[in-house]
């Protein structure tokens, strides 16, 4: 796990040179007012940018798989891939080759078009998400004025391929798996979105750069504090909801091996299965990137004096940290039962996020325009209070359940229980 | 001194007291407590209003008489009837004429009420309960109280009429008096003759009232007002004059032309005559006098009050009140006698003489007095006709007193004779029951025999002077006053009239000559029949037992007689002409003249020099009358005579003529009554033939129409109904195709509509 | 970026969408198909709204900041969502009772 | 502004090409020996029973339903959040009312058991 | 020029999708075409400059409603035998709808819409920014003073001229009533659907 980090760092270095070149390219496209570069120029620049993004993401994804297996391995006190290449670094490439070369079996009963399209359409949403990820001050692919919203909109389109896969493969279990997966993804999208509204409220804008600006010491935007400090609860909910969106443990019911074969991609083999796998990792990375932007202040250094280090380093570090968290979760938490999973989304996360949102709204008005420290103080107080309230509620709920539990057993057992107690007393 | 204005302002209390009494008596009757109580209530009522009016009269006598006459103290007037643009006002007008007459009415009525409280005593025993046979006292009490209720109402009517400020209001009270006279004449309604007389009285006065009513309406139509005050104003009178003669077509009556075939008569004269018609009816002047003698059927106090003192004089009062209207009929100077006044004077004179002559040949004591009243009223009207305004009013007042006195006297005589008859029967047992009872034949064919049981027939009387001394004395005083014996009130007032006539004769007025001549002969005849009456009733031996046993009346009846006799004697003194040799200056130069004279619009009412001739002439006439009366009736007792001495003098046929009142009743009966009956029969026939015929015809037509209708209905209407049914069923079948229930089809149709709409827009 | 797109293009596209949606709604036998048609029609209307927001001059002072068109579109989207939800729920419950989802079979109100 | 959207469009195009390239590559590289058994739908080795599109419980639909309505709610939250600081305090209460009303919906679904996973 | 091209592309996608919905035999497939059409419409919004609306369109229509529709299709899917997808009145419907389209098109073309003057030239974006600055300064006046302050503070590097802020203000102030009512509508829809759907 540790050395994985420097590895990420080294990876980052190689990209700096690339980034230098890239920034020139990107800045070229910075939308100065009035700069009306020719249409052709735009297209070419866009294509170049897109390919660069895809490459980075692809490599990132490969080494993410590698990283994950190394980390999970370490967590489970085993080594993880170290045979292929130095420290198993070549392992991802080996996997990729395997994917490409395995036979791609298409069940005859499957609805040909929908089956194939499902596999294909899984990837684009994952990739398009990266358009709004802001690496550095001007290093953003498409600085949309509604960046955050765009990301979640694209996220929500990921549901469609799952359904197509499930239905297309004409397999009862696949369809059932798809239905479950969709239900889960859909259910967790609401808390995810609700959790970040608090952030938007404080930042007052949807565009990624705007968000980052309002968080860091650089630039004198309003809160000037990382939103994670102001919105800890929001961050936690966002994290949980995103893990569910990505169908990673502990919310990985859809392709839970132990239950319904492989979920919606049971009928998929070879590269199509690879595509699903690839899309998953893409989303993980993009989600953690957005998470970093929303809560950890993107390319903003934690403290003013650290402004020297270039922004994108901060950005990559924070993203990798979040990715590590996801892997960490996978390594440690057991899988949730389906009904608990669904109940958790609607009955716990949504209410909490709503309450958090209201409190944030109220506080935003109270401390509007104050100094970052004051803002931070007020919010921590509120958050601590909310957490305390939550704990008290949960405790109360557990006691209530405990009392109810006894009454459920059959009368005979109760009689024996009562006798025992009498004896004991 | 008494504050005249305050008194006048509250003068509306006068009619109110008696009205209150009337209501209280009604309550008493209703609660069953009639009897004496009601009498006392009535007396109290009339006493109150009488006292008030006397005080009012005395107050007006004071110096302010002059301006009182000019600007009568109009008391509060109340808006009574909304009349288009204004209101008909209901109020009280106090002027010398009104005040004096009210006082007279007050005093007279008071005496009569007291008198009748005992006279009507007989009512209690009169009624017997048909079932149980014994006397029905409750009914008696109720009838007694009923009498006093009517009388109080009558007093209210009279007071109201006298003090009325408005012609319509006067008409109202005038009608009340008419009603009361009808009720009182027919008081003993179980007597058919009384009922008949009441109806007759009411009908005849009604005819007169029609004239009055038309007169009032014309006044209102032309002058727009009926208030005395505004009527009397010179400019309204001038306006009346200006209207000029009616050329037959009278426009303005409800917007369309009315042709009145009275070409040539000026409107003013026409109005005056109409109003005079009313007084002819009420004061029983010539054409409409027939009801007064029959009105004697009522109880004597009634006759005394209504048919002597008050009601009948109301007609004269009306002419006096509206004198300017009559006088203005003359175009130029008020002194002239206008056409209207000519008519008035003529009728007055004629009535005076006619009534007097009939009076001579009557046997019923009250009828004689009735005819005497008619003739005296004729005197007043005659006086007004020739412009002797003050004399007429003066005679009105004096006549009221002595005529009331005479009537009450006759009442007491009748009362006495009745008692005499009862005692006669009771003492004598059946003595003259059968054989003795014989009707004294009149000896003159056509003249009714004296009914032995009729207490009013003078032939059953005689020699009552000794039996009823007080009644005799008072009756004698009344007779002397009536016949114009000097010193007595009658002389002053009647002489006043005759002297004015004489004076006017001097001015060359032909009518004045007629008036004077007829007046003087009437005076002679009056003296004669009064003397005849006195002698038949009081002088000589009693011709029947009843007369022999007639006791003096009760004190309650006699005392009023005494009071009235005092008035009869002394009242004349206030009107002694200033120029009268001895008494004139002594009595303050004719104060009555000054008091009443100012009422005339002319104001400066000149008094002409006293001329002895007319006075002497009238005294002479009176004396000869008395002498003749004594000669024929005084010496020999009436009982012995088989025939009326007068008949032997003037001959049976003439006597019968007079006795039968010139057969006027029969003439009326033949002409009007039978005529209207015939007309009614004709009407009935016409109705039966023409109207029924038309109705039957219509019904036949109806049935034919119905059948045609039936045919149409069956053909056409049913046809259309089936057609409609068929069309709607067709339509519904076609519509069913549309109602498929498929949503998409509806949507399709909807968008077809949209399409059409778009097409309209686009193309 | 030079020539801006004339307004009526948008209106034309919207009309096209609306028309196809209408055809779908009218001709589809499957109730869900009808619903899809309706969704298309709604989208057509939305395009119109946004196009008008974008092109039509906002009378001064009318809207606070002239965002009426967009608000209109958002409301329509929200309504379409609600409508789809309820509509499909209806269809499902009818399907459970009638075992058929063809519009023709829903012609009678009873039973 | 336009460039961004152009970039997004182009990125989607490229994103689409990648899986297609992958599949094409697989077609080229991977062996293709279709076999009836191999191509049959995999049902833990058992014979497939009945049709794949079997009836499902309404439960799934309910989740989607609630999701749609709450998704619309979130859409309305965005503009509010963004414009929040420029709006008076009243905006907070307006939003609280909005959320409460929809909260009622959530509570109703909760009580009625629409959220339970059968 | 590029803009026209983009518009043509996107419009083609939208209308093509719509035609796909109508033409598809299988309901499931037509649902997928519907999704494509939704994406096309989102594109049109993007070109029109309504970026928030484009994202909303994607988020709700593609993300939520299509899922709903697919669920519904799944739940009501009877035996495969779906012979005829169109009913008898298809032809008549075609005529009516095509003529409606034609009429609307002509109407659109012929009426002279009161085009906003600020839109003289330049890309949609510049127009947007110009009018944003102009109108927002003029019309927002006191009420949204803070918002203009807000945009001015953030340095220009950021692409801050999104109209989401103005939309938020409009929703919260001018169209507050519809905002609250839409929450009621959603509530009612939720409860109604649950009651109906739950067997």
Quick recap of the structure?
The complex is a heteropentamer of chains A (425), B (763), C (111), D (118) and E (199). By secondary structure, chain A is an all-alpha fold. Chain A has helices at residues 4-29, 39-75, 91-101, 112-128, 147-157, 159-168, 172-203, 208-213, 227-230, 232-245, 270-296, 311-332, 338-366, 372-408, 411-424.
What does this structure look like?
The complex is a heteropentamer of chains A (425), B (763), C (111), D (118) and E (199). By secondary structure, chain B is mostly helical. Helices cover 71% and strands 3% of the residues of chain B. Chain B is built from 33 helices and six strands. In chain B, strand 2 (78-83) and strand 3 (86-90) form a beta hairpin. The longest helix of chain B has 73 residues, at 664-736. Chain B is elongated. By secondary structure, chain C is mainly alpha-helical. Helices cover 69% and strands 0% of the residues of chain C. Chain C has helices at 7-27, 31-55, 68-98. The model of chain C has no long low-confidence stretch (mean pLDDT 83). With 118 residues, chain D is mostly helical. Chain D has one domain (2-112). Helix content of chain D is 68%, strand content 0%. In chain D, 49% of the residues are buried. Chain E is an all-alpha fold. Chain E has eight helices and no strands. Chain E has helices at 2-23, 27-48, 51-75, 90-110, 124-140, 145-153, 164-174, 176-197. In chain E, helix 1 packs antiparallel against helix 2 (27-48). The radius of gyration of chain E is 22 Å and the shape is globular. Residues 119-160 of chain E have low confidence and may be disordered. The chains are: A mainly alpha (425), B mainly alpha (763), C mainly alpha (111), D mainly alpha (118), E mainly alpha (199). Chains C and E meet through helix 1, helix 2 and helix 3 of C and helix 1, helix 2, helix 3, helix 4 and helix 5 of E.
Low-confidence stretches of chain A: 28-36
Low-confidence stretches of chain B: 428-437, 601-605
Label the structural class of chain B: mainly alpha
Overall SS class of chain A: mainly alpha
Helix content of chain B: over 70%
Number of strands of chain A: 0
The proportion of residues forming helix of chain A, as a percent range, comes to 55-70%
Number of domains of chain B: 3
Keywords:
heteropentamer, A: 425 residues, mainly alpha, 15 helices, 70% helix, C: 111 residues, Helix Hairpins, 3 helices, 69% helix, 0% strand
């Amino acid at each position: 796990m540790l050395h994985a980090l420097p590895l990420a760092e080294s990876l980052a270095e190689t990209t700096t040179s690339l980034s230098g070149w890239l920034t020139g390219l990107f800045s070229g496209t910075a939308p100065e007012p009035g700069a009306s570069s020719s249409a052709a120029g735009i297209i070419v620049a866009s294509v170049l940018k897109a390919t660069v993004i895809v490459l980075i993401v692809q490599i990132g994804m490969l080494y993410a798989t590698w990283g994950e297996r190394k980390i999970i391995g370490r967590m489970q006190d085993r080594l993880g891939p170290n045979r292929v290449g130095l420290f198993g670094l070549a392992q991802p490439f080996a996997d990729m080759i395997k994917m490409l070369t395995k036979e791609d079996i298409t069940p005859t009963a499957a609805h040909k078009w929908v089956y194939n399209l499902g596999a294909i359409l899984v990837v684009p949403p994952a990739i398009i998400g990266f358009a709004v990820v802001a690496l550095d001050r001007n290093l953003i692919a498409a600085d949309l004025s509604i960046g955050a919203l765009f990301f979640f909109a694209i996220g929500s389109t990921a549901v469609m391929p799952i359904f197509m896969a499930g239905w297309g493969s004409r397999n009862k279990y696949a369809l059932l798996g798809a239905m479950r997966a969709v239900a889960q993804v859909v259910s967790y999208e609401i808390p995810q979105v609700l959790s970040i509204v608090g952030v938007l409220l404080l930042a007052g804008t949807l565009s990624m750069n705007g968000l980052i600006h309002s968080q860091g010491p650089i630039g004198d935007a309003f809160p000037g504090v990382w939103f994670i400090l102001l919105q800890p609860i929001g961050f936690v909910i966002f994290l949980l909801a995103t893990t569910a969106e990505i169908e990673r443990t502990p919310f990985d019911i859809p392709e839970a091996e132990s239950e319904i074969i492989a979920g919606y991609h049971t009928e998929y083999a070879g590269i199509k299965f690879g595509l699903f796998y690839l899309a998953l990792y893409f989303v993980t990375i993009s989600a953690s990137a957005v998470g970093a932007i929303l809560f950890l202040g993107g390319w903003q250094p934690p403290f003013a004096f650290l402004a020297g280090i270039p922004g994108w380093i901060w950005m990559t570090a924070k993203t990798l940290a979040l990715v590590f968290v996801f892997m960490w979760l996978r390594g440690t938490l057991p899988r949730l039962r389906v009904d608990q999973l669904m109940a958790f989304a609607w009955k716990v996360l949504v209410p909490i996020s709503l309450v958090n949102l209201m409190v944030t709204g109220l506080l935003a008005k109270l401390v509007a325009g104050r100094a970052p420290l004051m803002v931070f103080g007020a919010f921590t107080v509120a958050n601590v209070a909310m957490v305390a309230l939550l704990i008290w509620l949960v405790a109360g709920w557990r006691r209530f359940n405990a009392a109810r539990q006894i009454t459920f057993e059959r009368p005979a057992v109760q009689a024996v229980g009562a006798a025992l107690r009498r004896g004991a007393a | 001194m008494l504050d005249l204005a305050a008194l006048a302002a509250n003068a509306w209390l006068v009619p109110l007291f008696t009205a209150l009494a009337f209501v209280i008596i009604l309550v008493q009757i209703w609660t069953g407590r009639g009897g004496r109580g009601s009498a006392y209530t009535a007396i109290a009522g009339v006493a109150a209003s009488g006292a008030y009016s006397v005080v009012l009269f005395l107050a007006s006598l004071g110096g302010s008489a002059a301006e009182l006459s000019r600007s009568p103290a109009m008391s509060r007037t109340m808006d009574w009837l909304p009349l288009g643009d204004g209101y008909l006002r209901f109020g009280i007008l106090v002027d010398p004429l009104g005040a004096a007459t009210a006082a007279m009415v007050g005093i007279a009525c008071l005496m009569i009420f007291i008198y009748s409280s005992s006279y009507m005593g007989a009512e209690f025993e009169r009624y017997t309960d048909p079932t149980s046979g014994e006397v029905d006292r409750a009914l008696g009490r109720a009838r007694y109280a009923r009498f006093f209720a009517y009388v109080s109402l009558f007093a209210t009517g009279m007071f109201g009429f006298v003090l009325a400020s408005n012609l319509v209001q006067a008409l109202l009270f005038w009608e009340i008096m008419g009603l009361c006279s009808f009720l009182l004449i027919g008081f003993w309604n179980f007597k058919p003759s009384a009922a008949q007389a009441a109806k007759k009285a009411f009908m005849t006065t009604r005819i007169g009232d029609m004239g009055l009513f038309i007169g009032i309406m014309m006044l209102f139509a032309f002058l727009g007002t009926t208030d005395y005050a505004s009527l009397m104003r010179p400019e309204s009178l001038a306006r009346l004059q200006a209207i000029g003669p009616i050329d037959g077509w009278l426009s303005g009556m409800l917007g369309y032309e009315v042709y009145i075939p009275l070409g040539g008569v000026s409107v003013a004269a026409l109005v005056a005559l109409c109003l005079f018609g009313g007084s002819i009816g009420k004061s029983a002047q010539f054409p409409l006098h027939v009801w007064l003698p029959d009105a004697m059927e009522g109880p004597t106090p009634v006759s005394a009050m209504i048919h002597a003192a008050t009601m009948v004089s109301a007609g004269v009062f009306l002419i006096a009140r509206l004198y300017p209207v009559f006088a203005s009929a003359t175009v130029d100077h008020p002194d002239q006698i206008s056409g209207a006044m000519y008519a008035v004077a003529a009728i007055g004179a004629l009535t005076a003489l006619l009534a007097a002559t009939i009076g001579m040949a009557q046997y019923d004591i009250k009828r004689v007095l009735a005819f005497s009243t008619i003739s005296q009223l004729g005197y007043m009207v005659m006086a007004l006709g020739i412009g002797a305004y003050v004399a007429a009013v003066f005679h009105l007042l004096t006549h009221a007193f002595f005529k009331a006195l005479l009537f009450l006297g006759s009442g007491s005589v009748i009362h006495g004779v009745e008692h005499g008859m009862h005692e006669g029967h009771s003492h004598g047992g059946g003595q003259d029951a059968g054989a003795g009872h014989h009707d004294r034949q009149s000896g003159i064919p056509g003249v009714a025999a004296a009914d032995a049981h009729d207490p009013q027939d003078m032939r059953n009387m005689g020699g009552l002077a000794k039996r009823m001394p007080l009644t005799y004395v008072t009756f004698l005083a009344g007779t002397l006053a009536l016949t114009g014996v000097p010193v007595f009130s009658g002389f002053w007032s009647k002489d006043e009239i005759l002297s004015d006539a004489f004076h006017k004769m001097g001015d060359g007025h032909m009518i004045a000559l007629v008036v004077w001549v007829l007046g003087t002969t009437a005076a002679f005849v009056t003296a004669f029949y009064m003397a005849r009456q006195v002698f038949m009733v009081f002088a000589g031996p009693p011709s029947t037992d009843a007369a022999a046993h007639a006791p003096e009346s009760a004190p309650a009846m006699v005392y009023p007689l005494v009071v009235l006799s005092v008035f009869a004697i002394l009242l004349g003194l206030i009107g002694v002409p200033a120029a009268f040799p001895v008494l004139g200056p002594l009595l303050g130069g004719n104060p009555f003249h000054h008091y009443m004279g100012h009422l005339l619009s002319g104001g400066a009412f000149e008094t002409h020099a006293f001329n002895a001739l007319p006075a002497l002439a009238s005294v002479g006439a009176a004396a000869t009358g008395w002498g003749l009366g004594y000669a024929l009736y005084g010496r020999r007792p009436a009982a012995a005579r088989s025939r009326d001495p007068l008949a032997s003098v003037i001959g049976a046929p003439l006597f019968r003529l007079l006795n039968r009142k010139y057969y006027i009743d029969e003439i009326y009966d033949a002409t009007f009554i039978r005529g209207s009956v015939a007309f009614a029969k004709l009407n009935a026939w016409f109705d039966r033939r023409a109207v029924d015929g038309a109705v039957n015809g219509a019904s036949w037509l109806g049935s034919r129409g119905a059948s045609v209708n039936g045919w149409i209905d069956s053909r056409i209407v049913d046809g259309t109904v089936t057609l409609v049914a068929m069309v709607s069923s067709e339509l519904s079948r076609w519509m069913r195709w549309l109602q498929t229930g498929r949503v998409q089809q509806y949507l399709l149709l909807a968008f077809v509509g949209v399409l059409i709409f778009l097409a309209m827009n686009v193309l | 970026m030079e020539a801006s797109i004339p307004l009526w293009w948008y209106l034309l596209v919207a009309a096209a969408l609306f028309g196809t949606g209408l055809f779908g709604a009218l001709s589809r036998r499957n109730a869900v198909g009808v619903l899809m048609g309706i969704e298309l029609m709604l989208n057509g209307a939305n395009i119109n709204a946004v196009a008008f927001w974008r092109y039509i001059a906002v009378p001064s002072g009318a809207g606070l900041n002239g965002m009426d068109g967009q608000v209109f579109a958002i409301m329509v989207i929200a309504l379409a969502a609600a409508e789809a939800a309820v509509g499909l729920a209806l269809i499902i419950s009818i399907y459970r009772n009638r075992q058929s989802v063809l519009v023709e079979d829903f012609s009678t109100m009873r039973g | 502004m336009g460039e961004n959207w152009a970039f997004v469009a182009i990125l989607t195009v490229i994103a689409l090409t990648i899986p297609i390239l992958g599949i094409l590559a697989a077609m080229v590289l991977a062996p293709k020996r279709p076999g009836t058994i191999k191509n049959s739908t995999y049902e833990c080795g058992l014979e497939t029973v009945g049709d794949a599109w079997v009836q499902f419980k309404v439960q799934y639909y309910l989740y989607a339903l609630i999701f749609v309505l709450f998704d619309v709610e979130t859409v309305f939250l965005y503009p509010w959040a963004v414009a929040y600081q420029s709006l008076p305090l009243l905006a907070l209460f307006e939003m609280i009312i909005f959320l409460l009303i929809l909260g009622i919906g959530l509570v109703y679904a909760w009580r009625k058991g629409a959220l339970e996973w059968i | 020029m590029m803009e026209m091209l983009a518009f043509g592309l996107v419009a083609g996608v939208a209308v093509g999708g719509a035609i796909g919905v109508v033409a598809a035999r299988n309901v499931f497939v037509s649902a997928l075409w519907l999704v494509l059409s939704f994406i096309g419409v989102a594109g049109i919004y993007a070109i029109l400059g309504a970026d928030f609306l484009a994202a909303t369109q994607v988020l709700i229509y593609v993300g939520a409603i299509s899922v709903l529709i697919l669920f519904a299709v799944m739940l009501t899917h009877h035996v495969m035998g779906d012979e005829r997808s169109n009913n008898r009145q298809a032809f008549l419907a075609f005529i009516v709808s095509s003529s409606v389209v034609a009429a609307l098109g002509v109407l659109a073309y012929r009426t002279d819409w009161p085009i906003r003057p600020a839109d003289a030239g330049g890309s949609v974006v510049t127009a947007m920014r110009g009018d944003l600055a102009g109108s927002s300064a003029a019309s927002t006046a006191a009420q949204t003073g803070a918002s203009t302050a807000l945009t001015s503070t953030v340095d220009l590097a950021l692409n801050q001229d999104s109209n989401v802020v103005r939309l938020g203000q409009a929703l919260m102030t001018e169209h507050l009533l519809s905002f609250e009512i839409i929450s009621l509508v959603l509530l009612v829809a939720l409860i109604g659907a649950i009651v109906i759907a739950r067997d």
